[in-house]
Known about the structure:
heterodimer; A: mainly beta; about 5% helix; B: mainly beta; 10-stranded mixed sheet
Amino acid sequence: xxxxxxxxxxxxxxxxxxxxxxxxxxxxxxxxxxxxxxxxxxxxxxxxxxxxxxxxxxxxxxxxxxxxxxxxxxxxxxxxxxxxxxxxxxxxxxxxxxxxxxxxxxxxxxxxxxxxxxxxxxxxxxxxxxxxxxxxxxxxxxxxxxxxxxxxxxxxxxxxxxxxxxxxxxxxxxx
Amino acid sequence: xxxxxxxxxxxxxxxxxxxxxxxxxxxxxxxxxxxxxxxxxxxxxxxxxxxxxxxxxxxxxxxxxxxxxxxxxxxxxxxxxxxxxxxxxxxxxxxxxxxxxxxxxxxxxxxxxxxxxxxxxxxxxxxxxxxxxxxxxxxxxxxxxxxxxxxxxxxxxxxxxxxxxxxxxxxxxxxxxxxxxxxxxxxxxxxxxxxxxxxxxxxxxxxxxxxxxxxxxxxxxxxxxxxxxxxxxxxxxxxxxxxxxxxxxxxxxxxxxxxxxxxxxxxxxxx
Lengths: 175, 271
């Protein structure tokens, strides 16, 4: 399965010319366990001092009238909670999303608007953290230089709660 | 009043109340969760004096002196409180974003004197002391005692308001927020004694679950001139921190011995 979450789609539509996009691909592995709940997943770009340069996504059980406990477990994404979540108002526009099923998911971000617009050239790390109810937790970090070389795909792989994680630039002319 | 005459007597009196603080017995308050997210939450808390950390196996910690301070400084009443032989428990509803303090504090005096050929001992608050005329007893020796047993929990982002000091006894002035501790990262805690930096005090930090290991998991530190200790909790888990300071304090123009203690539980999360 392949789901496209285009966070900056509205902004893109408003742009006169399409710009480069950053595609962050997150694979949630299929697990054969007795009790399976979809994981909470957070993705962010960290500065070298671990502070947050850009929040990309947090997938969790969004609170509804029927269930108001979704935010209770956000703190279990413990690095994300520490670096970003605890000082954010949830749900966060363009960041919060529902939990995702096993499979590959793309977070596509316009490089000139939204969270990437203010990213200065330099060294960063893409961090993806996943935690599953009655399950484990895993964090995958992929260091990269910004701006990213469009010819390059960077990737990392989790072993338990996350599968292949990759990031690459999708150029306007490559579409 | 009479100057203190016998240090042994003073220490004996001290041991009455501080039995739970002796090296083998550790007093602690342990919340079910230290760090929480969401709009409002509820935690349950254990309070005990035990040999092993954090297994209640000696005596319940009395809830009489336990209070909870919300981020805005208000008192939060304990809910569903109960004390058994070995453990006290209570719930706390967390409705404000920020850091709460859960603490047991006690301050008072120990007195010892000879009356009618017998050794008499007394303990109580400063008000009781004056009312009972203890300071006028013959050959009385007095010791001031201040003890604090604390822990901190945070809903949302950590705040600093509950760290305002009262200026009495040993108190924590954290450089690292106690709800922001991760294994493998260096942390610093500061201490004040009667409101001034507590230099040169001994602080013991012990990793919980000591029942499942033969030794280790313990570090003894001495505070620097600013009253700070710095260390790295290598292992994730709940920790018990204990500091003690002995000295003297002025009481009605006399210098009397003072024993103060500070205990805090905190957790180091895995990175």
